[in-house]
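Deliverable D5.2: sample structural annotation.
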Amino acid sequence: MSSNPVPETPDTPKYQTLVPYIDAENPDAAHEANAAICRKFPVRRNLFLLLANSPGLFGPFMGVLYAIFNGKTRTIPLLEYQLVVLRVAGSLDSEYEFEVNEPVARVHGMPAEKIEALRKKSATPEETLKHDFWTERERCVIKLVDEQLATYTNAEETILEAQKLMSNTDLVEILMVLGVFAIIARVARALKVDSDGEIPGLDDFIRVGVTKNARDPHRP
């Protein structure tokens, strides 16, 4: 898999990104370690090629992402982490983040009506939660996300409500996932990360690269 950007020609548009992606095939010395990480990733992700501009922070940040992707290290169920991510992406109007994560949710069984409800940036919390397909715990997770994005904190009663429905481990992990993907959404929007475009075999990569844990329903 080559991580080189598509060469510019009169027939191909320029990238819109405001910060150039690193050249993962021919990096300078300062970015070689990050380029190696990008080359090992099975699919090209423009976000990673952009974040790789940071020689020191990219590797540790990817370690956090890999821990979230991996059902052996992530405590909350896969579709709960995706509920957080899609709510963040929709609320912060990050088309890139939604584009990358929608297939993850879909492949692992999130119903289409939930995905569409999370996509609508203009929907108020009340409009989103009016649907009867949300469970009580999902409603609580959405409320946690919405309050954080609106106020950068949560009301004490919201935390107490959450603690009735989930463990402290789950609560902390949900807020950590929220924070990580809020960073990604904001960077992607601010620096105008380009769409990754169509990726052949993406669904198969998702099944292997983003895994469930024992708390997830396992479909045959």
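Annotation notes: The chain has eleven helices and no strands. The first helix runs from residue 32 to 40.
The annotation will be released with the project's public dataset once the embargo ends.
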